[in-house]
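Sample pair:
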Amino acid sequence: MVIKKLTLENFRNYESETFAFADGLNILTGKNAQGKTNCAEAVFYLCTGSSLRIRHDRQLIRRGQPFARAAAELKGRYGDLTLEARIFENKRELFVNGNRVTRAVDFIGNMNSVFFSPGELRLVQDGPDERRRFLNLSISQTSREYCKALLRYQKILDQRNNLLKERDYELVSETLAVWDEQLAAYAARIVAKRREFLRELAPLASEAHAYLTDGKETLALGSDEREESDDEIFDRLIRELAASRERDMRLGFTSVGPHRDDLKISIDGQDARGYCSQGQARTAALSLKLAETEIFKRLSGETPILILDDVMSELDLPRRKKLLDRIGGLQCILTCTHAERVLYGADSYKIRIQGGKIVP
């Protein structure tokens, strides 16, 4: 799938602008703080219904304006598609082919994208939250069932946590079993899907990492590889929730479940989080993203849109060239301050941005 046209209205620093993209490498160039990343962010938002940079959608609205709008025209193996998001102070409206959809799950995944920026070092260096977010966003783009289970799980988890904050321990004890059964049912679906995804991701990430490092380092992803059916996962989670009830009541939150899981990333047998350098973390994170693009191809039959935000300045020349060779055949939106013809090639499509506007 490729994005042919992107229209932004009051989105971040854009008043009104329309981008026309080529099928291959699209370079957004210009000085810092002109709007290059804002354009890339809009594409990712239309893919996932969320931003990697902000917590509240209202932050996407241009200062002093009542709303923001982002719309994309796409071409895929099944024909043309349009996606649109209208963002207001306290709500948003989502549209697929001009029809409003009321559920986020019906919007996510119509267009797949993989986003990489220097901030993705958090995926390797920070806590488990970042790695779970990576898994959730990636799997949700290709599995609506996972997205539905995740949304339901989070709602039930919030209700269970609210109950745990009650001081009436007798009431809490009597009610928890009901919530536990519902929570475990959705948790089992999440755990099973994550395991399935990681079984495919791990060898692809290892291969990509070997390619980027000329085989000098070995990347491995560690996860829970227990052989369990969905029913066995459910039974185990029920037991774990029951065993943790007293502790959860003391803590006031749920201490077990897939919302507490982590993905272990190791380089040459060492935990990457505490061992690797900045450069190693960057390469490891990039390897995960390249592996993600391969999974999207396999599962959806469509090539995802690859978004590389200010990545080249962080890589040495050999790895830049390796990366560009690797992404041939993908539509890529790449942001940078300088578009070197020698590196990117004469056939790349360049868009210069200044002050939230496309300029010659």
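The longest strand covers residues 2-11.
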